[in-house]
Amino acid sequence: MPAISVNNISKSFGKVKALDCVSLQVSKGELFGLIGPDGAGKTTLFRLLTTLLHPDEGTAQVDGHDIVKDYLAIRQCVGYMPGRFSLYPDLTVEENLNFFAALFGVSVEASYDLVAPIYRQIEPFKERRAGKLSGGMKQKLALSCALIHRPNILFLDEPTTGVDAVSRCEFWDMLSELRQKGITIMVSTPYMDEAARCDRIALCNEGRILSIDSPTDITRGFDAPLYAVKARNMFELLQRARTVQGVLRCYPFGEYHHIVTDATFNTDNFQSSLNALEDLQIQAVSPTIEDMFIKLMER
Amino acid sequence: MKKSNFQSFVKKEFLHIFRDVRTMMLVLLIPVVLMVLFGFAISTEIHNLNVAVVVPNKSESIRQAVNRLACNPYFTLVDEVANTDIDPVLRSGKADAVVVFDEDYDRILAQRNAGINTPPAMQFIIDASNTNVAQSGAAYLQQVLAENHTPQQLLNLHLLYNPQMKSAYNFVPGIMGFIFILICAMMASVSIVREKEMGTMEVLLVSPVRPFKIIMAKMIPYFMISCVNLMTILLIAHHLLHVPMSGGWWGIIVVSLIYLILSLTLGLLISTIATSQAVALLVSAMLLLLPMMMLSGMVFPLENLPTVLSPLPNIIPARWYIQAIRKLMIMGLPLSAVWREVLIMIAMIIVLLVVALKRFKDKLE
Fold first, then answer.
1. Do B12 and A95 touch (CB under 8 A)?
2. Chain B contact set for A54 (CB, 8 A)
3. Both A41 and A59 in a single domain?
4. Which residues of B touch A100 (CB under 8 A)?
5. A101 and A43 both lie in a single domain
6. Distance CA B327, CA A232 (A)
7. What is the pLDDT of residues B111-153, one digit of tens each?
8. Do A112 and A28 reside in the same domain of the chain?
9. B49-149 has which fold?
10. Residue spans per domain, chain B
11. In terms of CA atoms, which chain B residue is nearest residue A44?
């Protein structure tokens, strides 16, 4: 039995189709990532699976319980961390944790071993009001609160949005640790670089799932040669690269532009046809999840 | 949810209230401030009305009349003026009223006492730019100066329950009606909506706790604080403002507790409608406080309403509460005399609670 099973679920808000016939399966103990830009329907899927919304069509099971019929059973066994910081800013760190333990009828001591690796980092500040914590510490507290009742499945909606790079990295380390303890985790993120830390990911956009696979298999599906190019005038490079023989697509990618090519492409030919540009560099690169995402979006 | 968990829920709610200094001040000080303000400062009674007199001669009876004015606490005798100075003294604001004695005051009085019809023996000239002051002032002057002069009294005026017409008696029930709406309905609804706005409601809903418990836990602190306020108000009313509480304390407390629950139910209903704290505040102010001031009989007599609007006050909860409290507190009637008001309030609670619980969802839409 999969931990989460979603079958052809659709959900609309007025005219906006937030989810359009989405299906996916998450196995027990898996760290599953939902990767997609804002408006992809990630939050809606979380709210459906945490029984906060009813689907228009389709069914879903979480931990073997139907999200419509057995929603009370689901609320017993899942942990949920919504996208916004949703603790009480006027309560202290300790008071927040105690409250959420009481909410689920457990004691902090009983679950301390599970939350300790995370909570210990913020324990020195336990007298501090939650609203006065830094972004990274807030996330650690929120995660501790979501874990306090030993959920089987953890739903984390964009936990790292608005958190600095170091804290983000630490946060993913914590998720990996939790996964090793057998907790199924479904996490969403708009950051493509975080996707590689998941066991499997679903790329989604505008309410549809474009692809589901492990991060390496997803990038393996990128079959065209890919190059990173750079020049002093990046804007001119972008425009002119698109006219070169064999270039299928060219798009900005960090400090480079990535160009996707077909078999007729030749780097010497590329360099000679653009030699008017200063400091032109080109090198072959292996595709990332973001390249795959752009490819899938353009289809 | 186990009992201890419910307690920690309530405790958390108390923490929210006490951590926010402004909320706490609002909750605990407003009743005291309002009571003192309405009890002492804002009053419809006339004190120290400045009166000037025009005295044509110093006859014994005129002197007696002027003395009566001078020792009355409601009046301050400012000046004796000449007939020609009446206008300037009123214009300059030195006096609010001028009492003019007739030259033949003694003779007219004697004729009156003998039962002969006479022209008036004195005249009141009153600055009516403030109608309230003018009206009450004229009435007071008449009572003080004219009482001995009309042996053939036409009517026997008897003011029951509040013979001194103290305005505090009138305001205390009104303030009670106001404060409990403010604390129970407005603040409780805002505190529920705050959880929606902050997103914590999402986390609360995705937990085994039933929404009904969440709501109850939110209501209890406001109920308890209101009970404290009820005691403060009653003690201030009784000991500082000398409101009689002649119907007995228990009746007043029972009716007030019912009204507290009614206010909380109103707050719950508002919280199911409003999506943000600002909306909750606005709805409370526009739908509860404003009609309460206008239509509960607290400030304006309900008898003055046009016929078309006259059924309107019946749906204002405070109207029934204030009416009941007036009966219990001022008129000294027993609890059995307000059964109608109590039944209406209980009916309102049931209807509002059913609607609110129907509207309250454990989902997001």
1. yes
2. 363, 365
3. yes
4. 203
5. yes
6. 88
7. 877 777 778 888 889 988 888 788 888 888 887 876 555 544 5
8. yes
9. abc type-2 transporter like fold (3.40.1710)
10. 3-42+166-359, 49-149
11. B364
